[in-house]
Amino acid sequence: YKRIKAIASKDEAQDVEKDEDKDVEDELIDRFGDYPTSVENLLDVAKLKAVADSAEVLNLHQNKSKISVLFNNRASRELEGPNVFRALEHVSWRARVSLDQAKRLHVLLELPANLKNRQLFNELNEFLTSAAKILQR
To answer: CA-to-CA distance for 56 and 128, rounded, in angstroms?
Structure first.
């Protein structure tokens, strides 16, 4: 669990997923056998945290059927305008985009009913990965 928590970058998160480097997952399976969904969710959260860090997200939280994503000032300037919509183009959820009083970009994602965790993590990962790529240009 310490190794999962220590995933600090998107590359490390991707290493956890890749067939050629499944050290964390293999270690979990070796020690405990097939791991439960809760451990899979923990791995997904660690990966999402790493991607959110690379996208310069200040705050990411879910409140019932909505997810709020707040970007830092630099990311907000880079993503403002058409770039945020480029990052959102593969997200199937309804999104509201605004700036807060500090001129930070705020994206509110409205989640569909009966959303599975796998879909949640996949869509968030897609959005944040796209945002991170825009910021790296």
So the answer is: 9
Residue 81 CA: distances (Å) to CA of 76, 104, 124: 9, 12, 20
How far is 135 from 57, CA to CA, in rounded Å?
A: 11
The one-letter amino acid at 87 = A
The four Cα atoms 17, 23, 24, 26 give a dihedral, to 10 degrees, of: 90
Model-level pTM?
0.80
Sequence letter at residue 81: G
pLDDT digit string (tens) for 41-98? 888 888 899 899 999 999 999 999 999 999 999 999 999 999 999 999 999 999 999 9
Give the whole-angstrom CA distance, residue 131 versus residue 74. 12
Side-chain-facing half-sphere of 33: CA atoms under 13 Å: 1
Give the C-alpha separation, 134 to 137, whole Å.
Answer: 6
Can you point out the beta strands (E) in 11-120?
57-63, 66-71, 94-99, 105-110
